[in-house]
Design brief:
The protein is an alpha/beta fold. The protein has two domains: 223 residues, Rossmann fold, CATH 3.40.50.300; 77 residues, Alpha-Beta Plaits. A six-stranded mixed sheet has the order 6-7-8-3-9-10, sandwiched between helices. Strand 4 and strand 5 form a beta hairpin. It is elongated. 35% of the residues are buried. The structure holds adenosine-5'-triphosphate and magnesium ion (MG). GO terms for molecular function: ATP binding.
Length: 322
């Protein structure tokens, strides 16, 4: 792991938000470090945008603290906000101006941003070739990148993006992912929200999973995955005898409805006789020994890590992500 990960850029502690009579956010706590891409994953209505609006001081938390580079977003707004670049919901751009003119417009609102800095951010988001065209002629992906260019103008330490890949096609998503990764490699802390598991899994170092305004888990994506139940698919002969033996082992659970835990494409590759179990790696060897000792032929043993989606289902006991 990157050694500059230790420096905390964003610290969120026990943040809650009540709007009207409704508690929207309950006791949310997490940190984002320098050089890391932190994912904020949750279904529609989970509280992602509400949390982000508090991070950038568009609304105030009801309680709790938010610090950016050590500055309290509520008490030291100016110093804190100086370190944040963000796109919340959709970036607002003037479509009758060129990309460059839009950036000049935003540059005038902050001190110390010259033509050279504008040229630098255009270069980072790779819009050089189209920057002097009117924004009305841009694709959605180009508009998103212009939004990021604007967010980067003030040389922030923290970039906050609310669902940056919304509406993009697979190529646009891939491009976006590449340059977010590049920005993080250069030391930026990036906070990205998404309701798409595959997106977060590909992009992020760590993730907070949010549902119903509560953070269910925070951790490295890989660690969250390896710490959860995993599934083993068995091809045994004779299958019925094998299944009987497996179901008699106290450390092995037979999954009677594999379609509820496995992806469709995994299921498609399985034979009709395949048996799916939930069993730890340590116990799998013992199970194999028992099967072999009973004369059952073990044709295939295949371990599958759950996807983030299965993880989410385990945590929320079935609430769907989409
Ligand atoms: N101003 C408001 N007044 C009342 N309720 C609100 C307000 N803003 C948000 N909410 C409610 O708070 C919850 C969280 O909304 P939020 O927009 O933060 O979710 P989200 O995770 O960003 O969802 P999405 O994926 O759809 O963008 C929702 O139930 C929403 O209806
Ligand atoms: Mg939202």
């Amino acid at each position: 792991m990157n050694d500059h990960f230790s420096e905390i850029v964003l610290s969120v502690k026990n943040v809650t938000k009540k709007i009207g009579r409704k508690w929207i956010i309950h006791d949310v706590t997490f940190d984002v470090r320098k050089g890391e891409i932190f994912g904020f994953l949750g279904p529609n209505g989970a509280g992602k945008t509400t949390t982000i609006r508090m991070l950038v001081d568009l609304i105030k938390p009801t309680s709790g603290t938010i610090k950016v580079c050590g500055y309290d977003v509520n008490r030291q707004q100016e110093q804190a906000l100086r370190h944040i670049g963000s796109i919340v919901e959709n970036p607002e751009m003037y479509s009758f101006l060129t990309g460059w003119e839009n950036l000049e417009h935003f540059a005038r609102m902050q001190p110390g941003i010259d033509r050279q800095r504008i040229a630098e951010v255009v270069d980072i988001v790779r819009l050089e070739r189209r920057i002097h065209d009117k924004v009305s002629t841009y694709s959605l992906g180009m508009r998103q990148r212009l939004g990021i260019a604007q967010a980067l103008l003030g040389r922030p330490k923290l970039l906050i993006l609310d669902e940056p890949t919304n509406g993009l096609d697979p190529k646009g998503i891939k491009e976006m992912r590449h340059f977010i990764q590049q920005l993080a490699e250069e030391g930026l802390a990036v906070f990205v929200s998404s309701h798409l598991l595959s997106e977060i899994q590909l992009l992020c170092d760590r993730v907070a999973i949010i549902s119903g305004g509560r953070v269910l888990a925070v951790g490295e994506v890989d660690a969250l995955i390896s710490g959860s139940n995993d599934y083993v698919v068995w091809e045994l002969k004779p299958a019925a005898q094998g299944k009987r033996i497996l179901s008699g082992l106290e450390y092995c659970d037979i999954v009677e409805e594999p379609e509820s835990v496995l992806d469709d494409n995994l299921l498609a590759g399985m034979s009709a006789e395949a048996i799916v179990t939930c069993i730890s790696p340590e116990h799998t060897f013992r199970a194999v020994e028992r099967l072999v000792a009973s004369g059952v032929e073990v044709r295939e043993v295949h371990r599958m890590n759950p996807t983030l989606e299965q993880l989410f289902l385990q945590m929320t006991e079935g609430e769907s992500l989409e």
